[in-house]
Amino acid sequence: MPSAKVSPEEPTGPSTWPTRLELMKVMEEQTAEDLQAVCQNQGVKHLAERLGTDPDKGLPNPVSDWAERVKTFGENKFEERKMTPYYVYLIDQLKEKIILLLIFLATVELVLKGLIGYGDERSEAFAESSVLYMTVTIIVNIAAFLDWKRERMFEALTKRLAASNLRYILRDGQQLTVTDAEICVGDIVSFNSHMASIISCDGLLLSGQDVKCDESALTGEPEPIAKTPEHPFMISGTTVNSGKGTFLVIAVGDNSIAGKIKKDVYGAGEQ
User: Fold this and answer.
1) Distance (Å, rounded) from C-alpha 230 to C-alpha 207?
2) For the whole model, what pTM was predicted?
């Protein structure tokens, strides 16, 4: 027996919402069974109503339960990557073969001539060793600083790009222009293949016309994937190749497909 329909006028909240894990599973598995289960066999519009969203008007503006949504489903931004300390770059540079060779030559010079040698040999050994050690110090610090600076410049550029990437959402029946961080689960996002083609969070197609997405970066599939009521999965990190429409946001930030991939890549890099 199908579940009772949730009306947008009825109170909704955590008690009617599906869980974060249920929504994440829909995007991970992308099966008809999981989709029907979370939609209670009544379609994506019913899921929108369960999340307190009017399928035609979107969430209210402002979103009165924003804090509760963030607590339950997370924010549409990624956990900031920890910057590599300067000393780590220094250690990495000291492992370079040419640096190790210079240190070895300076040490051999110092031991054989500086400690065992006589007269002028000892003075020359101390001078030559000092020059080599100083050369190593300069090279290592310059290389480490450049890597340290490059990482921070890249992070700053990423933040600027994130702030400049604007999306279109529907709230109270009006289209708003927002940043990724202002999108939450339950929002309705408008997209098209021209000005709003990047999908920044996971969702399910609500309406669309000839919608196809490039998912090659995630799946390796070279052909664009058509989005239909039977296959409505809009995956974060993909691009809309053709068509336009709207989708219901069901996973954001670290809980989205793109977020989990990013976390895995960063985690592997830090090991």
Assistant:
1) 12
2) 0.72
